[in-house]
């Protein structure tokens, strides 16, 4: 039996980084997905089989003989890798997994894949031990660009692994895409969070939570999710600066600034918290006519600009992001970085009454700078599962 899963990426409308330090953030799923297919392989005679991983986006495939996994994890200090409940990857466990990743000779140019492979091995062996199996992963999301590819990776992978484990009492004969029960989604989310810890270092949990549960928009603070309803659909342009960066390093950079300037950074995080709270109230506020829609969108634009200013204070903007901000401002459009920054993606609010002609002009100008504009629906389903 094979299981397929898909989990969405996300945009953060306000509160990235500050959310790691306890502030409120507002985010939504987007209709770009990471997909996983997984099947357990029957062991052949005289051979314990292998755990195989194919990463379609990079054209790379990896394989670990089950016997090699067994031998590595026989190290007494960590006990058996199988775990019925989500738990963090201990430093000893992490060292053993790092040695298994090391053996794979990942090309130097793709060394950033390491953390994802590390998270894969942790989740696989925690949920299925050394059982041979094959996992194939592909994504519509640009990787390492602020749209939550790491969370979509961990959620779709945890969902697929759990769907073929004893942890789920799901009817595997049902055809088509299924949404899981709340308790099952919660379990997936917890495992995915452990995976995100390996990739982000110190994640807030917002990305895996949005990717697991979906919904039109969410407010998130200290692990707590609240669904919010937008009274008018928001149109966002996503511009990928194509400048590569790594969330873990950016999150660590902000924490360093907190150590150096604790009072100033606490004030910055408080300001972000207020912005996110106000943003969520405005998003939910009813609109009756064009005048009220324009007033609402103007307030949202101002809050996005204020949040961007505070992200600059945190040291996570980038010259490429500033170029996007300047370009969109020429058309009186407000933008902010989304995700970890340092390059990656920028959000621009496209007001409801903005003509298609202007949108096309902005996109053409941004693309002439070498950026890539993405169109994505804001809000949507979370993790889905399909058996075949
Ligand atoms: N489809 C994928 N294939 C392989 N690795 C992936 C995939 N999606 C995510 N990753 C892992 O996640 C990392 C990117 O995560 P991160 O730096 O948090 O950026 P973001 O989450 O914004 O895309 C990659 O370096 C890789 O390790
Ligand atoms: C910077 C942060 O707030 C969001 C990171 O998102 P992404 O990995 O850049 O898509 C980190 C986190 O909340 O875990
Ligand atoms: Mg990430």
UniProtKB/TrEMBL annotation:
GO molecular function list: ATP binding; metal ion binding; mevalonate kinase activity
Compartments (UniProt record): Cytoplasm
Gene3D superfamilies: 3.30.230.10, GHMP kinase, C-terminal domain
EC identifiers of the protein: 2.7.1.36
Recorded metabolic or biological pathway in which this protein acts: Isoprenoid biosynthesis; isopentenyl diphosphate biosynthesis via mevalonate pathway; isopentenyl diphosphate from (R)-mevalonate: step 1/3
Pfam families found in the cross-reference section: GHMP_kinases_C (PF08544), GHMP_kinases_N (PF00288)
GO annotation terms (biological process): isopentenyl diphosphate biosynthetic process, mevalonate pathway; sterol biosynthetic process
UniProt catalytic activity: (R)-mevalonate + ATP = (R)-5-phosphomevalonate + ADP + H(+)
Domain (GHMP kinase N-terminal): residue spans on this chain: 128-215
Domain of life: Eukaryota
Major place of residence: cytoplasm
Residues in GHMP kinase C-terminal domain copies: 298-351
This protein's UniProt keywords: ATP-binding, Cytoplasm, Kinase, Lipid biosynthesis, Lipid metabolism, Magnesium, Metal-binding, Nucleotide-binding, Steroid biosynthesis, Steroid metabolism, Sterol biosynthesis, Sterol metabolism, Transferase
Record-level GO cellular component terms: cytosol
Family in the record: Belongs to the GHMP kinase family. Mevalonate kinase subfamily.
NCBIfam families cross-referenced by the UniProt entry: mevalon_kin (TIGR00549)
Protein name per the record: Mevalonate kinase
Lineage: Eukaryota, Viridiplantae, Streptophyta, Embryophyta, Tracheophyta
